[in-house]
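Morning, I've got a small favour to ask if you have a moment. It would help a lot if you went through both lines with me. Thanks so much in advance, here it is.

***
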Amino acid sequence: MPPSLPADPSRIHLASTVEVNYWCQVLNCTETRLRNAVLAVGPLAADVRAYLTR
């Protein structure tokens, strides 16, 4: 079952455990990798997705 969408699906909010879990599942990555990607490129989901698929 897919996770429910976050409040703002265009941005990744690392302060929310629910959203971190959502993005880790959607982007198929670990929490550490997600956090590092957000630190590298910012919280926009499209930028993080592009960073993780390089």
